[in-house]
Design brief:
With about 210 residues, the chain is α+β, with helices and mostly antiparallel strands. Helix content is about 50%, strand content about 10%. The N and C termini lie far apart (about 70 Å).
């Protein structure tokens, strides 16, 4: 048996009964969703009932971040994110976020966990691509945005009562100072380029021209 109950503006409670417990009480699975109207809510109810009856549904209170990411990727990311953006998200999820938080329940990840994690990212050894020891400040800021995006979606889906990143400031991005050739260095570079193939000569001299 399944039912839908209106809770507020665009908010509905989905209820699916799965039988009786050992003492005769009804076992219910519930989920609060946002919908434009009763028709959309009933469609979501049908999807929810299928999840429950197939054993795929996991109570939000027990869902790990890794399980949530699987849902997030299938139900949101593949439809809403550009392919390159999703590729970058997946890279940081695989290398940094899931190894740290994947095993934790969503509701157990607290602000201090995230603050400590961001601090660890600024220390030697955080980089995982073999290109050095330190992550750039821009990469750390990007990882922060990935985590926040995940929890934004969890809040939209009403899986959490409070956003764990509320009050956590975005890491500062340190802009690297650009260095340029002076006139003598530029002349030496051009002379050296005439010893190189024409393709590289054109490529590099074009890069030396100021915009």
């Amino acid at each position: 048996m399944a039912s839908v109950q209106k809770r507020g503006n665009s908010s509905f409670l989905l209820v699916v009964e799965t039988g009786y417990g050992p003492t005769g009480e009804r076992i219910k699975r519930t989920k609060t969703v946002k919908a434009e109207g009763i028709r959309e809510a009933r469609k979501l109810l049908a999807e929810f009932q299928t999840e429950v009856e197939s054993g795929e549904y996991i109570s939000p209170q027990k869902m790990t971040l890794e399980a949530f990411v699987t849902d997030w990727r299938a139900k949101y990311a593949r439809k809403e994110l550009a392919p390159l953006t999703l590729k970058n998200y997946d890279l940081h999820l695989k290398n940094h976020i899931l190894p740290k938080f994947g095993h934790m329940r969503m509701d157990q990840i607290k602000p201090l966990h995230i603050v400590s994690f961001l601090d660890e990212l600024s220390k030697p050894g955080a980089r995982k691509d073999g290109q050095g020891e330190l992550l750039s400040s821009g990469t750390i800021e990007y990882i922060y945005r990935v985590i926040k995006s995940l929890f934004n979606r969890a809040m939209d889906w009403q899986m959490l009562k409070k956003h764990p990143m509320e009050g956590i400031k975005k890491p500062k991005v340190v802009q690297m100072e650009m260095q340029y050739y002076d006139e003598n260095e530029a002349q030496l570079a051009i002379v050296a380029l005439y010893k190189e193939p024409l393709m590289w000569r054109l490529f590099c001299t074009g890069a030396l021209v100021p915009f």
